[in-house]
Design a protein that fits this description.
Elements (H helix, E strand, L loop, with lengths): L2 H16 L7 H17 L7 H19 L1
Helix pairs in contact: 1-3, 2-3
Length: 69
Amino acid sequence: MNRNVLRGIYTLMREHWNNGGQIFERNIFRSWMINLNRRGGVVLLDALPDDVLVKVISEEADKALSEAT
């Protein structure tokens, strides 16, 4: 995995940890990683600028959270 992608994931995880940590529920986290992996199959995440990469990671986290509710 690319360092920038991993850093973006960890940053978002830290934010969620500090705000209740719902993203860490097993089904939500798995859905987030599956969706991010699929998105990475279409878009070369490693090549994205940092701001766009963070946006993609956040979008997939939001999608996983919304699917859980």
